[in-house]
Inverse folding.
């Protein structure tokens, strides 16, 4: 690889006519509108990243590949273009692979490009530097996986990767680039011609007119209809069509957590604060870009109540239909086209749902909101979750452009319910897996891709998975304010090990000062012990745009085991008390 690069440098005449693997990859990415790469340098991609930077791509250099990968994944969600993550071979590749699998599970378009060792050695298992058959490993974890062996195939390889990532149901794609490829030389003119600009990478998928009629007939017949908006609806960027459709239908809507803000949580039809009631009592449920997976109890069981229910589903993936329960009216297509077709077919005389239903939903919602209100205004020291989140709720209301990144157990469950979101794609969280560690990667990509400031609300445990990236935030001077809900541990900070000197497995160093981590890298660190201090610190951070980390001291006894999903823990019959 290095050899070829040197040859080019030493032969100035030849340089005009030659290109190489490094440049072909960069040119192919640029030709397809890629502007940013999330990466960790090392063999064999260090020079590639250097050259990418000098050729005008923005390269965000991380401290761990998993965080670069989570950044690329959420960049894909936010932009509808594949987020690009570049890593070194075997260990770097594996670190990035978690994020690639996460992107695939969440239907985010992403491309993981990893350098790899030489095929001849890897395939004979002769023990190369960082030897691994990465393509074989990646295949089961993503939507598609490709390897390019020849410089003249780079253009087509990148085109395939892009189209695979964004068309149909979006997902993660792996692209394997062996070290030797980067140094391969070819005629510059031929190289240029070999590149492919992907035309209409994610073609509209128009729903069948029959399916639209069937869906509207079911919806019309409903006495207690409900619309569930999922993050697929947020991804689709069909914000006006979705809003018009929901408003024209008059149907109460329930946003999944990353669909919050498609219509504001304060919208009169929002049933977010009446979730249990609408799931239980509704008779027709229209799912738009949401799946009936564990997050919705698979569409059955106690949560869904006794009443017979009919499900209508809009999704780009035909296989999603009937995945858990019968879908009586499947609408397959892209959400923009489907919702627009529904709107047109509704005509001008669509009747609102029965008023006793919409009134019942509204009054339940108002009752729950009123019940919560005093808790959010408490000024307790040490802070509890409600006092601290009440402050952040007001701040997001006053600064609705801010992107909220959120992870943790109690910190996640409570923030999701308490903090209202007002605009589309302003809430980014742990997604389908409920994964911990997405925080700093998502925070970085969110501000890089949108230019908006980020407020990252993190449990102390969740933060630990990506905490070193605060250095990255400081290095790139990003407007990110991290608030750590520090209750000294996982779920709670009060567990005790009764059988020895070691601390209990769920507790951390008591009174830890995460704010000092930020100061170590030149950012602003604040220790906040009361809601008033927290309010002041967050407002200051968002006004200044300076990288800030606020250690919010939360009562170690606050919080419950596994947040709201403690029921998923298996129980031992032999458990010692
Ligand atoms: P949530 O967790 O919010 O319920 P999911 O990730 O489970 O969201 O579901 C998102 C769904 O949206 C997936 O089934 C995916 O196929 C679908 N989807 C993603 N993008 C589009 C699109 N542009 N048009 C239609 N459906 C989409
Ligand atoms: Mg904690």
């Amino acid at each position: 690889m290095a050899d070829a690069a040197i040859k080019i440098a030493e032969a100035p005449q030849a340089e005009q006519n030659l290109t190489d693997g490094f440049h072909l990859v960069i040119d192919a990415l640029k030709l397809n509108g890629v502007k940013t790469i999330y990466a960790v340098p090392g063999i064999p991609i260090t020079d590639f990243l250097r050259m990418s930077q000098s050729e005008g791509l923005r390269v965000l250099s991380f401290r761990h590949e998993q965080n670069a990968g989570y950044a690329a994944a959420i960049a894909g969600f936010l932009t509808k273009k594949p987020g690009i993550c570049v890593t070194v071979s075997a260990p770097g590749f594996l670190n990035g692979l978690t994020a690639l699998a996460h992107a695939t599970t969440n239907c985010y378009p992403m491309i993981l490009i990893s350098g790899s060792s030489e095929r001849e050695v890897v395939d004979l298992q002769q023990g190369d530097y960082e030897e691994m058959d990465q393509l074989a490993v990646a295949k089961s974890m993503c939507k598609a996986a490709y390897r390019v062996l020849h410089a003249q195939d780079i253009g087509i390889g990148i085109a395939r990767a892009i189209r695979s990532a964004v068309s149909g149901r979006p997902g993660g794609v792996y692209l394997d680039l062996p070290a030797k490829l980067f140094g391969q030389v070819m005629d510059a003119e031929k190289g240029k011609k070999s590149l492919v600009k992907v035309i209409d990478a994610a073609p509209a998928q128009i729903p069948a007119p029959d399916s639209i009629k069937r869906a509207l007939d079911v919806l019309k017949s409903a006495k207690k209809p409900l619309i569930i908006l999922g993050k697929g609806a947020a991804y689709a960027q069909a914000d006006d069509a979705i809003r018009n459709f929901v408003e024209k239908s008059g149907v109460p809507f329930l946003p999944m957590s990353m669909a919050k803000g498609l219509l504001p949580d304060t919208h009169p039809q929002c049933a977010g604060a009446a979730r249990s009631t609408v799931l239980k009592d509704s008779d027709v449920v229209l799912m738009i870009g949401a799946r009936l997976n564990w997050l919705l109890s698979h569409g059955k069981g106690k949560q869904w109540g006794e009443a017979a229910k009919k499900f209508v589903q809009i999704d780009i993936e035909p296989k999603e239909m009937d995945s858990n329960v019968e879908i009586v009216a499947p609408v397959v297509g892209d959400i923009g086209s489907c919702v627009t077709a529904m709107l047109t077919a509704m005509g001008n005389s669509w009747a609102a749902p029965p008023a006793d239903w919409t009134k019942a939903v509204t009054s339940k919602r108002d009752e729950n909101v009123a019940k919560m209100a005093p808790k959010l205004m408490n000024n307790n020291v040490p802070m509890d979750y409600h006092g601290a989140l009440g402050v952040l709720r007001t701040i997001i209301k006053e600064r609705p452009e801010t992107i909220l990144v959120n992870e943790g157990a109690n910190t996640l469950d409570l923030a999701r319910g308490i903090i209202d979101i007002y605009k589309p794609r302003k809430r980014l969280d742990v997604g389908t897996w409920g994964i911990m560690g997405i925080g700093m990667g998502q925070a970085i990509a969110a501000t890089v891709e949108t230019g908006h400031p980020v407020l990252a609300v993190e449990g102390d445990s969740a933060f630990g998975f990506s905490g070193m990236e605060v250095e990255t935030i400081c290095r790139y001077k990003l407007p990110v304010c991290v608030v750590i809900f520090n209750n000294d541990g996982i779920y709670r900070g009060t567990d005790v090990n009764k059988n020895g000197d070691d601390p209990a497995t769920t507790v951390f160093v008591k009174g830890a000062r995460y704010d000092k981590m930020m100061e170590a890298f030149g950012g602003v660190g604040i220790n906040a012990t009361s809601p008033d201090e927290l309010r002041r610190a967050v407002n200051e951070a968002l006004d200044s745009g300076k990288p800030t980390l606020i250690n919010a001291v939360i009562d170690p006894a606050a919080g419950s085991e596994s947040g709201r999903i403690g029921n998923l823990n298996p129980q031992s019959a032999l458990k010692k008390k």
Residues 209-364 form a domain with the Rossmann fold fold (CATH 3.40.50.1220). The radius of gyration is 25 Å. The first helix runs from residue 2 to 10.
